Here is the input.
Amino acid sequence: MNNTNKKTVPEKMRERFEAIMGIVDPFCQRHLNAEYAALCRRMAAAMCRKRPSPLSSGATQVWACAIVYAAGKVNFLFDNNQKPHLSASDLCRLMEVSQASASAKSGRILGALDSMPLDPRWSLPSRLDDNPPGAHSASSRPDPMIGSDQHVNRAAHGDALDGVSRRPPLPPSAGTARAARPLDSQDCDGDLSGLG
Here is the structure.
């Protein structure tokens, strides 16, 4: 472990950290690059500092794969136009972990780190200049009231989506007939005064 990580990984998590990085480092050296290895090391150290750390239990191999998977999601590793590139299925196959497990655990990692694609805190240094201008601002943070597919759009277009409704969609069971009809006395307990 390098000196930086000795200071940032809590004593009780150091053995687990080393076990995870004992899988991640060689994988990154063989299939990715040193930049991914360093990013995964920082991400694993940050996860070890969480209290309680999710990394403290569960299969080491799964967490190792999930860390690479999470770093890859932030940096578009799964996009075949990127260098380096690995598909999610190839990553999981090479690390001998089911894609469902890796995806679920990487989701926990990204949630715990409050991260998303294009997050400058978890972007590869060589990719920071590739991030769109709005990706570095507060407007790129996820808004829990808009769909996750709009997070990237919001990051890419800055405040251009400020007019987007932040109301969650109606559940499928709500139907449109009730929502479309005008209010009547049944909706307001008979008191329609002040509505007009």
